[in-house]
Predict the 3D structure of the following.
Amino acid sequence: MIRKTDFLVVGSGIAGLTYALKVARACPDQQVLVITKTIADETNTKYAQGGIAGVTDLEHDSYDKHIEDTLIAGDGLCNPRTVEIVVKEGPERIKEMIEWGAQFDKDEEGEFKRGKEGGHSEFRILHHKDVTGREMERALLSTVSAQKNIEIIKHCFVVDILTQHHLGYLVTKSTPDIECYGVYALDLRENRIVKILSRITVFATGGNGQVYRTTTNPVIATGDGIGMVYRAKGRIENMEFIQFHPTALYQQGVSPSFLITEAVRGDGGILRNKNEEAFMPKYDERKDLAPRDIVARAIDSEMKKTGTEHVYLDCRHMDMEKFREHFPNIYAKCKSIGIDVATQMIPVAPAAHYSCGGIKTDEWGHTSIRNLYACGECASTGLHGANRLASNSLLEALVFAHRCYLDSVTTIGNIAFNEKIPDWNAEGTTAPNEMILITQSIKELQLLMSDYVGIVRTNIRLERASKRLDLLHEEIESLYETTIVSPQLCEVRNLITTGFLIVKGAQFRKESRGLHFNTDYPGKSSLVQNIVL
């Protein structure tokens, strides 16, 4: 089966939907196709609790302050130009979200309530209670549904990017002008591979938290875009910088982990160890509002010292009426497992949360593959550097979706469909006999990544991880070549590729910087560089 569309968007989170809406309105005579592998609102966006950072109060805040906070968090690896773009263009994009119906919390006077989170020097975070991402996703889906030239296909899993490779050419990392012609996708409704030809393709495929055993990410966050671009010989950058959110609700054996947003600490929550000691002053003068990499390592250190699997977040001294109003889902979740936040501390532990690296792009969202853009968490734009500043991710998604839109509507007129791409060939493949070969590979991957490539790393751990990943890769590629494709097989393939990229990036970085901490190289190198694979 073949389909053709002018604009193809892979992913239905804030980045993908924002882009789709803007190009659809700018080009009403052209077709925009959005494909998502589950339902439309099952995205990383939906699970973003904390908020969206932006300078919306120039009387008390400034662009320079937000830029400086971002650069400090990024620990020398941010692209200053990208930071300036996102910070200065962000407020206008937030305004658009409000025009599309997103409701951010306001006080009695009708002014926006602005929160403060780790690494921020001012109160600049807009929230919708503790479900900001879900509210933004709701507003976008509502607006997109009224746009007649946008079609959303659910339960459609992208398998691979179409390039010159599929025309019989040898494509390598050094091949100039690799081009994207669309994708092969597995339509789960009809259980067959569809060839989707597009003039412009945008990857907004989200994160890769499922590469770890414990993560705040939903089960769909399997690094699909990153895996596919790497296999298509595109450039991937800074994958060693995985942000572990310091405060995920600790429940043994439960994944995804429930996120306790950083805004709780912004409102006065205090981290304590099993002896009820407030330990953060020992690690950083900013205490509980230090950047996430510092807080996560501090918690990791305290857990190792005390031999525990978690620490505590103490909210007992906080105004409970305000807590229930601001954090209704957190309050309800804790209550559902027998924790009264007013009288009991919340057990928390770090969990894989956000990938600061990803598909390398320029300031207009171009990847190294022509006619392929990337935005959102799957992209490495240069904003986050070695560590993401809290609540900058939703802002980045809006700004770069807009920039991808601005650039692509000016170039699409020069791009034609490539009709020579062959149909999918499944000859010689059979249905898998044992799904345990796939499920066990995922378990092995998550275990080795958590044990060897977590918050604190060593050379010997990375070497062990690398060897085991090589074996997993060999086994899954053999399975891929001989069996009929399934979402589970494609996901484990992408997860293994993503794990490999994280390990290789970590091995190449002979220093400790931002989210990457290697005890064999505890200091920073004088050579400040991005690791591009």
